[in-house]
Design a protein that fits this description.
Length: about 120
């Protein structure tokens, strides 16, 4: 049930956005050991974002998951894979991007009419 929501202040073509959605779904699913049928990736482009006092390319992401996130080892492993993708697809350097990791309980999210608990 991982949910990755990405917000950036850059423009991305529909084709590149689709490529990035697929890449993130694949990479995050593998990193977390979650089936792709539960992956949810959301990309918000063209957002009004200031980072370090400028509006140069920047962004942030929130990754929510039942397990697989929360420890420094887990979060650093994910960061090491995602930051290069954000640079490659969005042109955003790693020092202008944040990722927030949220480990949620199985009872805190529902899918197909019921929670995962």
């Amino acid at each position: 049930m991982p949910i990755l929501s990405v917000s950036v202040n850059v423009t991305l073509s529909a084709e590149k956005k689709t490529e990035l959605l697929k890449e993130l779904s694949n990479v995050v699913g593998k990193l977390l050991g979650k089936p792709e049928k539960y992956m949810c990736i959301h990309i918000n482009t063209d957002q009004s974002i200031s980072f370090a006092g400028t509006t140069q390319p920047a962004g942030f992401a929130v990754l929510k998951s039942i397990g697989g996130v929360g420890t420094s080892k887990q979060n650093n492993a994910i960061s090491n894979k995602l930051f290069p993708l954000f640079k490659e697809y969005l042109g955003i350097p790693s020092d202008r991007f944040y990722i927030e990791f949220v480990n949620i309980g199985a009872a805190d999210i529902a899918f197909d009419g019921q929670t995962f608990a």
